[in-house]
Amino acid sequence: MSIAVECPGCHTIVRVADELAGRKGACKQCGTVIRIGPPSPSSILMSGPRTLADATPQDMVHELSRRGAAALLTLFDPVRLGMLASDSIKLSELIDSGANLDKAALHLATDRLDAEQIVRLLKLLLEAAEQRLASQSHVHKAAAHEGSAFKFKDDALGLKLVDFKAKYHRPARAGYRKLPWCSDESPNTAIPELLTEAWHGSVGIVHARVDAPSEGNSPTIAGIPSDLVLYQFVDGTLFQILILFGTDNFHVVAGALRSKYGAPANETDQPRQLTWWNLENSIELTFGRLSPRAPAVLRYFHDALSAEAKSRQPQRGHDI
């Protein structure tokens, strides 16, 4: 028989003859002095059939060492994960059926795998890890502002263009233009005041304002006047609200956002930028310049819809 000893320094499992019990020796891996104790029931290779449920992780490692086998041992807590491990199911059957990967991992120490099964198992482990990371990422983002939709003056991302027009409708009258001012009134036309380019109309992008520049009545933000508040739609859905304002009021707007949404999820110095997010939407506040002057920028944007709108931008190099 032999005694299994775990190095307290590097946790390597070492097997020594049982007649060395009571002696001391240096670990071959890290040099830590190890005291060899008497054999324990778990260190003695038991004869006869034994279920995996009876084996401890240390037993599994000992058995693998005895066999001279290399294996990937993954441990999960069946109770915490709400799983039921079944000793009657073979790993190969679990892999073939696409059953719960965590159950399969419990059998990995005792089943012999061919090369094809190992490759398939590694793919399953990778897929499971990616799914869990994605799930954790969503949970993290949701936890920041759970149940809190990002709105600017009660306008939420995802608002339909038809509803936006109805909400801000003001008929034209002497000296005043019709509102809201939307770029789809003059499709395929560049309108500097709406930051539109000629190609926007052909790909379903519409820019709109609820004010007329000539009236000098741009909406306020955190009680200060803005330089521009622009609503941007793709396929009739609001995907971004762009707000420009004086950089000297950056701290005022940052304070208002912190008060409403809490601490930002991310904060950088170069460039000076604060970011908040939830499951689908983001808020990005970016410092401008004081000299030469450039406005600070506040963006409320829908992540997926913004990516879709960006993907429709024509590639400038295609006409060269």
Number of strands: 18
Query: Which term fits the overall shape?
Result: elongated
The number of helices is 7
Low-confidence stretches: 41-49, 76-110, 138-147
Helix/strand/pairing class, anyone? alpha+beta
Q: First CA to last CA: what distance?
A: 79 Å
Q: What fraction of the residues are assigned to beta strands by DSSP?
A: 15-25%
Largest sheet: 8 strands, antiparallel
Question: Which features characterize this protein?
Answer:
single chain, 320 residues, alpha+beta, eight-stranded antiparallel β-sheet, two-stranded antiparallel sheet, 7 helices, 18 strands
Summarize the structure.
This protein is α+β, with helices and mostly antiparallel strands and 320 residues long. The protein has helices spanning 57-67, 91-97, 101-107, 115-144, 161-167, 250-261, 303-311, and strands spanning 2-6, 13-17, 24-26, 33-35, 151-152, 155-156, 181-182, 205-209, 220-221, 224-225, 228-234, 237-245, 266-269, 272-277, 281-286, 289-290, 293-294, 296-302. A hairpin with a 6-residue loop joins strand 3 (24-26) and strand 4 (33-35).
